[in-house]
Structure formats: structure tokens, C-alpha cells
From TrEMBL:
Lineage of producing organism: Eukaryota, Metazoa, Chordata, Craniata, Vertebrata
Keywords for the protein's UniProt record, in alphabetical order: Glycosyltransferase, Membrane, Transferase, Transmembrane, Transmembrane helix
Protein name as annotated: UDP-glucuronosyltransferase
Entries under SUPFAM superfamilies matching the protein: UDP-Glycosyltransferase/glycogen phosphorylase (SSF53756)
GO cellular component, one term: membrane
Membrane-topology descriptor: Single-pass membrane protein
Organism whose genome encodes this protein: Sinocyclocheilus grahami
A Pfam family reported for this protein in Swiss-Prot or TrEMBL: UDPGT
Broad class of enzyme this protein falls into: transferase
Catalytic activities: glucuronate acceptor + UDP-alpha-D-glucuronate = acceptor beta-D-glucuronoside + UDP + H(+)
EC number per UniProt: 2.4.1.17
Superkingdom of origin organism: Eukaryota
Family affiliation: Belongs to the UDP-glycosyltransferase family.
PANTHER family named among the record's database cross-references: EG:EG0003.4 PROTEIN-RELATED, UDP-GLUCURONOSYLTRANSFERASE
Length: 518
């Protein structure tokens, strides 16, 4: 099995998929860049095929600078913040596709490498279609594919493969739920149009035999699906392991108040300085202990109850019985871990899908959201206290956790089963809808609509012609009947006039019919 991975993303989630497939006896190869952030070159589970580019295209500063510009724009005006976010996202996508093209070009021009890959006789390509390098390479090698997908370059993966009625399916970036009135549906339509423009400008969609979608419907809004979509949301989640001794003692020292865990993910170092100080001040006023994944200069207002760490065992902390709330940026992995362990969330969305993710949890009654650009101490304190003191949030999240874990098969085992299914059957064409082979006018039944319209027009035209002909006949008959009646009535009136004159004057009037002029 060949994995085609990008610099900034790890579909293995700490080698869980790789180790599971390896335990089933599969031989794995991973294509990676030399400066890959997450995919290590040496692993007991796979062989690395490392590609070295002439220059570095993507660094962490790309995301940090984008977030800073977005937050500055949000402070000035929400509309400006939205426009800047769209502009920054398009810029990031362009850089990612440029790096992907450079990676593919380097590989395809290396004849020795391509010969080696072809001689290995791979059976399957597993890749993320957000950056379509793996798709292109799989087509070149004529390999069946399995997609590990959540988001595409232009939005949520479902929009590429399933019917997605925008009347109740919120478009990514809209910040809407599946309950929309007239204004919300109008806004959703506008976002859909913007996404279509982005799609046609930046991405050529490519579709595979099978999609492994990192979604679970306790999190995602209900929507139409397809048989070749296999849902594996939270496949990286697992029961919590014991914490290191020092961290475990800190958690236990919180007593009945418990602990708040905060992390903004791996791509973003932190928020603006004034916002970090506001959050630190709010933490210092709370009786709970705080574990904060933090990189950078220590806030001056930090309280003694807050522990700053450059790295945290996030899953193990969220699964600890002392954890009461999770302050997060809204990344998919962290939110699924919060759902898995039943921990309510306070969201500070920054970029990409994070706003949509927090909106989905808000709609479930398990989270609150704040504006990261303008968050104050009082706002943060009020929201966090609400989550901690209102039992509704924890009860709703524990219900979601129970629903999420009530399943016949763990998502990781489901993913491995379907990967092996594609391997055994050399693809899964029977799951692929005929829609991919249809033209646009056939898919939307525009030809059927045109045929029905033509029949309707012909029928109406025929009825109208018959009606016109009938009206003409009736009119002609009326004219003929009217003329005859008028002649009779005129003759009758003439006779009556003659008789009246005859009676009144006693003038003998000759019989005109009998008289003849000689």
C-alpha cells in the first residue's frame, strides 16, 4: 500500500492507521517531503520514500502570519475579517498546490525513482484529495484509490460526492446550522456561489472508488450520503493512558474544582499578546487548575493555578476524570477527542474549518464560542464559568459521547476493513454512483425538463389552435344566422309599416307584387 502525504497533515494520527494495517500483514510505503512536520522518515510500520525539493514552500510562519492578519481585520470589522480570511485561505491553497506540483514534478522527472515504484507493484493508493498529488500519481500508476478525507480545497468533502441541498446543508464558512430561515438560506446560497468560484479557479475535482470520511453524525449535521462513503470520525481516539507523575499530581491537586485544558493546536503558536493576557487574567480568577499548551513569552498576568507546557498529552488529559472543560481553537481532532471523553468545549476559532466545527457543537448544546480577535477577560470568564457551572453542557456532551461510542465497530477497524476490501476486489466500482458518468444536463434532468416543457408547449399549442378554429366557426355561423334573422325582421317591419299607413290614411295601395309597370 502506498501513502501519499503532504507536509502539514498526518492522516496516520500518530501512526494508528499504519500500525493497524501493519499488524494485518500489509507492507506500507509513505511518500513524504524531507521537511515533513509529522511524518517521520524512520518507522517500524512503513518504508519512507523521501522527496527533496529545491526550496521550501510551506512553513509554520505561513499559517501564523495568516492568522494574525485575519484577527487584525476582525477587530476592525466582521465583514472585513471575512474577506481577509477568504483571501488568506486562497493564498494558502495556492502555496500548497504549488508545493504539491513541485513534489510531483520532482518525482516524475526522477526516472530511477519511478522505475523503482513501478517495480514494487503496489496494490493501492491511500491519499487525501485536498491536495490531489496522490490522485495524479495513482492515475499515472493505474492504482485503485482510497481517500482519507474531511475537507477539500474548496470546502467540506461531501459537496464533491453527495447531493447537498443548501436549503438545510450549511456551506463551509457560513457559520450556519441546519435550521435556516429565509435570510439564512440566502446567505448560504451566496457562500455556495463563492465556493463554486473558488473550486473552478483553484481545484479540478477528482473522484475515487472509496472515500474514508473523517466524520461522525453525532458531530456533523444529517445530510444525504453515498454507498462509497465510509465514516471514520474519531478513528484516532482511544481511552486515556496514565499521565506522567508530575502532571498527574498537578491534576489531582485540583480537588473538586477540577482542571481546564487549553490548546490551540500545532500550527498556531498563539493569539495576539493582549488576548493572551486577557485569557491568563481570567484563568487566574478561577478556582480550577489550568493546563495550557503554550509557546512564546509567558503572560505577565498568569496565576499560580496555571501550568504552561510546550506539549501536552491532549487525549490523556481530556480523558482524565478531573478535566472539566476544554478551551480549543476548533480543530477536528481535538473536538472529536472532547466528544469521545465527554468534555464540553469553549471555542476560539481561528482558521480553516474551525468556525464550522464549533458551530456544530454549539448547535448540540455542548459548546460556546468567542471571537478570538476581540476576546476580553470578562467575556472569557463569563463563557467559561457558564460551561463549568451549567450542568447542561456536560450532560449533553456525555450523551453525545455515549451515542458516539455506541457502534458495532471502531472507526479505525472500519477503515482497515474497507482498505482491505478495495485490495481484495481491486477497487469497489459497484459502490460508485453512475452520476460520475453523466453530463451536467443529464444529472440535473435538464433534458427531461426540456422534453416535458416541449410536450406541454405542443399540447397547449394544439389546444389553443383547436380553440381558435372553433371560435372562428362559431363566429362565422353567428354572422350567417344574424344576416338571415336581420332580413326577416326587416321584411316584417316593412310590412307592418305599410299596413299602418294603409289603416291610418285609407289610401289604396296597389299590390306591388300583382302590379306591373308597362
Amino acid at each position: 500500500i502506498m501513502f501519499f502525504l503532504t507536509t502539514s497533515y498526518d492522516p496516520f494520527k500518530k501512526n494508528k492507521v499504519a500500525s493497524k494495517l501493519h499488524s494485518h500483514g500489509h507492507e506500507l510505503s509513505v511518500i513524504r517531503l524531507t521537511d515533513s512536520w509529522f511524518i517521520q522518515e524512520n518507522s517500524p510500520y512503513y518504508i519512507s520514500i523521501t522527496v527533496k525539493l529545491k526550496k521550501k514552500y510551506i512553513g509554520l510562519d505561513l499559517f501564523e502570519n495568516a492568522v494574525q492578519r485575519i484577527l487584525e481585520a476582525r477587530r476592525k470589522c466582521p465583514v472585513m475579517g471575512l474577506l481577509v480570511q477568504m483571501s488568506e485561505l486562497i493564498g494558502i491553497i495556492k502555496v500548497a498546490h504549488t508545493a504539491n506540483c513541485a513534489m510531483l514534478t520532482t518525482m516524475l522527472e526522477n526516472k530511477d525513482l519511478m522505475t523503482q515504484i513501478k517495480m514494487t507493484n503496489y496494490d493501492l493508493m491511500l491519499t487525501d484529495p485536498a491536495i490531489p498529488g496522490g490522485v495524479i500519481l495513482a492515475h499515472h500508476l493505474q492504482l485503485p484509490m482510497v481517500y482519507n478525507v474531511r475537507w477539500m480545497s474548496f470546502g467540506e468533502g461531501h459537496f464533491s460526492i453527495t447531493p447537498s441541498p443548501i436549503s438545510y446543508v450549511p456551506v463551509p464558512g457560513s457559520g450556519l446550522t441546519d435550521r435556516m430561515g429565509l435570510l439564512e438560506r440566502t446567505c448560504n446560497l451566496l457562500h455556495y456561489g463563492l465556493n463554486l468560484i473558488q473550486e473552478h479557479w483553484l481545484v479540478i475535482p477528482m473522484y475515487s472508488k472509496l472515500w474514508l470520511v473523517r466524520v461522525d453524525f453525532v458531530f456533523e449535521f444529517p445530510r444525504p450520503s453515498m454507498p462509497n462513503l465510509i465514516y471514520i470520525g474519531s478513528f484516532q481516539c482511544r481511552p486515556a493512558n496514565p499521565l506522567p507523575d508530575e502532571l498527574g499530581e498537578f491534576m489531582q491537586s485540583s480537588g473538586d474544582h477540577g482542571v481546564v485544558v487549553m490548546s490551540l493546536g500545532t500550527l498556531i503558536a498563539g493569539l495576539p499578546r493582549e488576548v493572551m493576557e486577557a485569557i491568563a487574567t481570567a484563568f487566574a480568577r478561577m478556582p480550577q487548575k489550568v493546563v495550557w499548551r503554550f509557546i512564546g513569552e509567558r503572560p505577565s498576568s498568569l496565576g499560580n493555578n496555571t501550568l504552561l507546557l510546550k506539549w501536552i498529552p491532549q487525549n490523556d488529559l481530556l480523558g482524565h476524570p478531573k478535566t472539566r472543560a476544554f478551551v480549543a481553537h476548533g480543530g477536528t481532532n481535538g473536538l472529536y477527542e472532547a466528544i469521545y471523553h465527554g468534555v464540553p468545549v469553549l471555542g476560539l476559532p481561528l482558521l480553516f474549518d474551525q468556525l464550522d466545527n464549533i458551530v456544530r457543537l454549539q448547535a448540540r448544546g455542548v459548546a460556546r464560542m468567542l471571537e478570538a480577535a476581540t476576546c476580553t477577560t470578562e467575556e472569557f470568564l463569563e463563557a467559561l464559568r457558564d460551561i463549568l457551572e451549567n450542568p447542561m453542557y456536560r450532560q449533553n456532551m456525555q450523551k453525545l459521547s455515549s451515542l458516539h461510542q455506541d457502534r458495532p465497530l471502531h472507526p479505525l477497524d472500519k477503515a482497515v476493513y474497507w482498505i482491505e476490501f478495495v485490495l481484495r476486489n481491486k477497487g469497489a466500482p459497484h459502490l460508485r454512483a453512475e452520476a460520475y458518468n453523466m453530463s451536467v444536463y443529464s444529472y440535473y434532468c435538464l433534458d427531461v425538463a426540456a422534453l416535458v416543457l416541449l410536450i406541454l408547449l405542443l399540447t397547449l399549442g394544439g389546444v389553443y389552435t383547436i380553440w381558435i378554429q372553433r371560435r372562428k366557426r362559431e363566429a362565422n355561423k353567428a354572422v350567417r344566422d344574424g344576416n338571415k334573422k336581420a332580413v326577416k325582421e326587416g321584411s316584417k317591419r316593412l310590412k307592418e309599416s305599410i299596413n299602418a299607413l294603409k289603416d291610418s290614411n285609407n289610401i289604396p295601395i296597389p299590390n306591388l307584387r300583382a302590379s306591373k309597370i308597362i
